[in-house]
Amino acid sequence: MEHDSFRSRCWTTDPRPRYWWHRLPGMDYVPPVYSDLADDEWLIIRDWFQETDQSERIGECVVPLISLLHGIIMGNRADRIVQLGTCSGYSMLLIGFMLRRMDAVHGLFTLDCDPEMCAIAQRWLSRAGLYSFVRIEALDSTTPAAPEAAVQYLGGAPNLIILDSSHEYAATLRELDLWYPALAPGGMIFLHDTSRFAQDFDVTHEGGVRRALLEWRAANPNVEALLLNGESRTMEGPRPLYKDACGLGILHKPTMPDSG
């Protein structure tokens, strides 16, 4: 077993783009999202990185975002979570480990429209032994029946939704219109890739998640919203407190209508 204090510090000298956070000044430490893992859990994450490095199936959320999710989930017992966009299973594994630590069965419903990505994630789910805590579905996140499928698995309305799927403007608008009504009062939606820099991730070139979020927020002014690093245009240069230049949008559903 690798010594607990080493773990992700092996990436502080790795020049590959996906390990950028670990090369930032002062980041020569193991963030809690990794240091909290049991030895066998860490080995699964390490092996996941090794496999995806070789296959180049790279697209996981970064340390700032998964660390923020770690605090929200573990600090508040978010136990009915929906993830729109599974990719190869990185955050699915880490959230699954959090849910297992909380003994929150049926806690994560994650879906992706790519059957190949779902199959890869399913293989890692099996290795991690997280079947009691996570359900993976090969399903389009804009399908009208998807929220009800999530509610059936979770046993109630989701209290946290993580939107990190196609990055397309039109699809993101449909996701917000579909999933916000399904969110439990007091719940939150996290939208990754909301910066100007991340607009290029939209293959339709229509403005990506940023444009969709800004327009949806303007049409729904009673929804509490926060946009982090929205004006970021590059991964280079000085970074603000929240280090991810791809940006993050956070929506909070009030527990009761604002009476003014």
Could you walk me through the main structural features you see in this protein, from its secondary elements to its overall organization?
With 260 residues, the protein is α/β, with parallel strands linked by helices. The protein has a single domain (60-252), classed as Rossmann fold (3-Layer(aba) Sandwich), CATH 3.40.50. Helix content is 38%, strand content 13%. It has a 7-stranded mixed β-sheet, sandwiched between helices. α4 packs parallel to α5 (90-102). The longest helix has 17 residues, at 39-55. The protein is globular and about 50 Å long. The chain starts with 19 loop residues before the first helix and ends in an 8-residue tail after the last strand. The mean pLDDT is 94.
User: Could you say how many structural domains there are in total?
Assistant: 1
Question: Largest sheet, described in full?
Answer: 7 strands, mixed
* Number of extended strands: 7
Shape: globular
Whole-number mean pLDDT? 94
CATH fold-level topology: Rossmann fold
Q: At CATH's second level, what is the architecture? A: 3-Layer(aba) Sandwich
Secondary structure class reads: alpha/beta
Helix content: 25-40%
Q: Spatial order of the strands in the main sheet?
A: 3-2-1-4-5-7-6
Terminal-residue CA separation: 57 Å
Query: Order of helices and strands, N to C?
Result: HHHHEHEHEHEHEHEE
User: What portion of the residues fall into strands of 2 or more residues?
Assistant: 5-15%
